[in-house]
Amino acid sequence: MESIFQKTLKNEIFLRGRGLHTGLECGLRICPLNAGSGVIFFSEDMAPTMPIPASWRFVRDVCHNVTLGREGVRIRTVEHLLSALAILGVDNCAIHVTGGEVPLLGGAAQEFLDAIDAAGTILFPGKRTVLRLSRPVWIDQGERYLLALPCEDFRVSCSIEFANKAIGYQACHFVVDEEVYRRGIARARTFGFAEDLEWMRERGLALGGDYDSVLLYAKDGSVKTEPRYADECARHKVLDMIGDLSLLGSPLRAHIIGHKIGHSLSVALAEKIALSGDARDSAMQEFCGSAQP
Ligand SMILES: [Zn+2]
């Protein structure tokens, strides 16, 4: 049963690994924070004392990852860690990043779940703000769309479609809670296409990663990595989306329905929900206060 109270970590977490995009060795130190603080990133290399809240307001890039930033400081690939923190209800923590990117680790959220489980969590007396919708909110970008419907729990219906036959059409549906996430979503890895690698590397993307942590597909439809689920790509899209929607700053109760979804759609949906006036994110407002991105 999901807690109605705010939560933080009992102990600090230390993790190291290569960044998917920078290819550099990156480090994480995640520390407990008091209730009402939210999830806050700090760049240890660039500006160790400047808070970068995990909020849609601080998103600076949504191309093949979510990058948060403030005043020229950037932290890349925050989405898998945010997804794990969100599903375990860790509302408050400080994430100190070295190397400018959250490590890819296994390419999914399992290693982050394991680290949070090992660190333990504690509850605060303060209740969580839960966001509910009274009317549908949607974003459409041509054939790609993402729709949030009012719902008393959090459920996701997601489909993707790629010309690459190894992926093709995949659809999945989850009424998401911690158990469902652990069983069916946490181990779904990020994926990519061998033919895109050159283009991405010219732009400083995908310099890290390997065949164990990234599901890599070739043009001819062959798979370089053995999938864990027949619909692993669609499941990974759900994992990403849970991380992206956590940028609202509070858990969302809604039925999310999407086709060909990606970070640009889900971050735009988070912004539209936050600005709709229909749902309130009071906890994040409290911390950000007058802070301008
Ligand atoms: Zn991802």
What does this structure look like?
The chain is of the alpha+beta class. 23% of the residues lie in helices and 33% in strands. The protein has seven helices and 18 strands. Strands 11, 12, 13, 14, 15 and 18 form a six-stranded mixed sheet that branches. The protein is globular, with a radius of gyration of 18 Å. It binds zinc ion. The site of zinc ion (ZN) has 5 residues, from helix 1 and helix 5.
Jot down its keywords:
18 strands; 293 residues; 23% helix; alpha+beta; binds zinc ion; 5-stranded mixed beta sheet; 6-stranded mixed beta sheet; single chain; disordered C terminus
Hetero groups bound?
Answer: zinc ion
Q: Low-confidence segments, ≥5 residues, pLDDT <50?
A: 281-293
Distance between the termini: 35 Å
Helix-and-strand structural type: alpha+beta
* Total count of helical runs of at least 4 residues: 7
* Overall body shape: globular
Beta fraction of the residues? 25-35%
The residue fraction in helices comes out at: 10-25%
Element-level helix/strand string: EEEEEEEEHEHEEEEEEHEHEHEHH
Tell how many strands the DSSP assignment holds: 18
Rg, nearest Å: 18 Å
Mean pLDDT: 90
Q: Sketch the major β-sheet.
A: 6 strands, mixed
